[in-house]
Amino acid sequence: MNTETHPWPPFIPDQAKILILGTFPPASNRWCMDFYYPNPTNDFWRIMGLIFYNNKFHFYDQQARTFRIDDIKKFLTERGIALHDTGAEIIRTKGNASDKYLEIIRPVNLQELLDRMPQCHTIATTGEKATSVIASLTNTSAPKMGQMVTSSTGLNIWRMPSTSRAYPMAIEKKAEYYSVLFREADIL
User: Fold this and answer.
1) Which pTM value belongs to this model?
2) Are the C-beta atoms of 68 and 61 separated by less than 8 Å?
3) Would you give the DSSP letter of residue 160?
4) Which of the residues in the chain have pLDDT under 70?
5) What's the pLDDT tens digit per position in 90-106?
6) In this structure, what is the dihedral angle of CA atoms 186, 167, 8, 47, given to the nearest 10 degrees?
7) How far is Cα 159 from Cα 146, in angstroms, rounded to an integer?
8) What is the Cα 150 distance to its own chain's centre?
9) Which of 57, 75, 99, 101 is most buried as measured by Cβ atoms within 10 A of its Cβ?
């Protein structure tokens, strides 16, 4: 099986207060843009649209069937939200994007990321596998869905529901979980 390395550098705005970490992007044939959460069926950007603009299509161009990457980057920069993934190098054991079939060969260098974000006080993971990787890297227990633990360095680590449509939860319910996170992190 072939290994894959992460296709993008971390997105880190100057004043990043929160770092959101998924597991790893889907294969490039699933992308509608060259940026985080690129699969048009993934609900991440729809959740952000619901929470911050009361419109799940705020970041989506329905006619072009793609996300508005410039609007997304502007939004992330204004809100101080950084993005990356927990897998720096992976193997897809079944050839798909399911976390269940991703083997992380090399995890993200979390300390290197945090060193670039001196104002970051919160990490949020988007799913079970990302949560377990971060718990391992921070020597914390994995928080339950919608809850947080605090690391020995004072970093708040939240577990959020997966934004994949394969995860059986309504988008509005997912948005409720993320809204709590953003309020607690002083982003919303």
Assistant:
1) 0.95
2) yes
3) E
4) 97
5) 999 887 767 888 899 99
6) -40
7) 6
8) 19
9) 99
Q: How far is residue 183's CA from residue 29's CA, in Å, rounded to a whole number?
A: 35
What are the tokens at 63? 């006619």
CA 174 to chain centre: 13
Domains of the chain, CATH where assigned: 3-184 (3.40.470.10)
In a 3-state reduction of DSSP, which class is residue 20?
Answer: strand
- The Cα–Cα gap between 112 and 92 comes to 25
Residue 129: the pLDDT is 93
Tokens 């410039």 locate to 70
**Three-state secondary structure readout of 91-134:** EECCCCCCHHHEEEEEECCHHHHHHCCCCCCEEEEECHHHHHHH
On whether the CB atoms of residues 38 and 25 are closer than 8 A, the answer is yes
Q: Whose structure tokens read 């988007």? A: 126
Ramachandran region, residue 61 (left: φ > 0; alpha: ψ -120 to 50; beta: rest): beta
Return phi, psi of residue 46, to 5°.
-70, -40
- Torsion of Cα atoms, 171 then 27 then 9 then 15, to 10°: 0
User: What is the Cα 9 distance to its own chain's centre?
Assistant: 14
Locate 58 and state its tokens: 């705020």
